[in-house]
Amino acid sequence: MEQQKTFADQKRKTVERAEFTADGRYLRKVRSFVLRTGRLSDYQRDMMNDNWATMGLDYQNQPFDFKAIFGNDNPVILEIGFGMGRSLVEMAEQNPDRNYIGIEVHTPGVGACIAYAKEKGVKNLRVICHDATEILRDSVANGSLGGLQLYFPDPWQKAKHHKRRIVQPAFITQVLEKLGENGFIHFATDWQNYAEHMLEVLQQFADKLHNTSPTNDYILRPDFRPLTKFEERGQKLGHGVWDLYFIRKGETL
Ligand SMILES: C[S@@+](CC[C@H](N)C(=O)[O-])C[C@H]1O[C@@H](n2cnc3c(N)ncnc32)[C@H](O)[C@@H]1O
């Protein structure tokens, strides 16, 4: 007998919105992700179903009210593609004076992140299971973010797939709208060609972004960024790591 489909099982079917052209044709989007069929374990499913009311946020086409969500005015840091969420939960635990929102399309990761946050008793974290580019565009108010972090995004190694990389000029334009003054952009990757691409794209916004690297390219791996699962895998394969850390300039700079 087929098991009854729960909220968590359905969620992976709603990670993006169907959009249409002006003349009513389905809009085929270039996605930065592939929806893997990875199995949602019973534990991850239960964690998602039981805690969504307190830890989950859904796509909405009006901005979130962060103060109402977190019950305070602390800066809100958005992380895109948190994977299984280990490093995000550790960061939230280490920075109780900040609020974190993690976005991930992979439901087993969302379940695992909620489970780990519950285990650690972390309260300053909410998770979203949806395409981050749609959330950023529709659900986040302009000037409302303290920072945006993107750690080890899918590198899309083949040249014909480079258009699927999430870091593109249009993405940075959108992030800049959402960041408050002095908000940060922190990227990390273990793929040199993607690091060079990230730097090249960010440098196009030199009038709005200050590169904190003393050498005007990458920073040393900062201690405040916990090791991510993907990074650990790369380390075992002997990969390098490139961190980029930029600050949005104030209007007066
Ligand atoms: C290579 S993994 C890295 C995961 C984690 N940051 C780590 O370092 O272990 C990249 C993740 O980004 C997620 N992702 C890619 N594009 C996304 C998007 N547009 N919105 C939300 N998540 C996305 C993928 O599902 C995947 O889990």
From TrEMBL:
User: What positions does the entry give for substrate binding?
Assistant: K158, D190, T228, K229, F230, E231
- Superkingdom of the organism of origin: Bacteria
Among PROSITE patterns, the record links this protein to:
SAM_MT_TRMB (PS51625)
Short name of one Pfam family for this protein?
Methyltransf_4
Main function: Catalyzes the formation of N(7)-methylguanine at position 46 (m7G46) in tRNA.
Supply the source organism for this entry.
Haemophilus paracuniculus
Q: Which residues bind S-adenosyl-L-methionine?
A: E79, E104, D131, D154
Protein name as it appears in the record: tRNA (guanine-N(7)-)-methyltransferase
To which protein family does this belong?
Answer: Belongs to the class I-like SAM-binding methyltransferase superfamily. TrmB family.
Q: For this protein, what is the EC number?
A: 2.1.1.33
Q: Which PANTHER family match?
A: 3-DEOXY-D-MANNO-OCTULOSONIC-ACID TRANSFERASE/TRNA GUANINE-N 7 - -METHYLTRANSFERASE, PENTACOTRIPEPTIDE-REPEAT REGION OF PRORP DOMAIN-CONTAINING PROTEIN
Which keywords does UniProt give here? Answer: Methyltransferase, S-adenosyl-L-methionine, Transferase, tRNA processing
- Catalysed conversion reaction: guanosine(46) in tRNA + S-adenosyl-L-methionine = N(7)-methylguanosine(46) in tRNA + S-adenosyl-L-homocysteine
* Pathway(s) per entry: tRNA modification; N(7)-methylguanine-tRNA biosynthesis
Q: Which GO terms describe its molecular function?
A: tRNA (guanine(46)-N7)-methyltransferase activity
List the record's Gene Ontology CC terms alphabetically.
tRNA methyltransferase complex
Which principal EC class is assigned to this enzyme? transferase
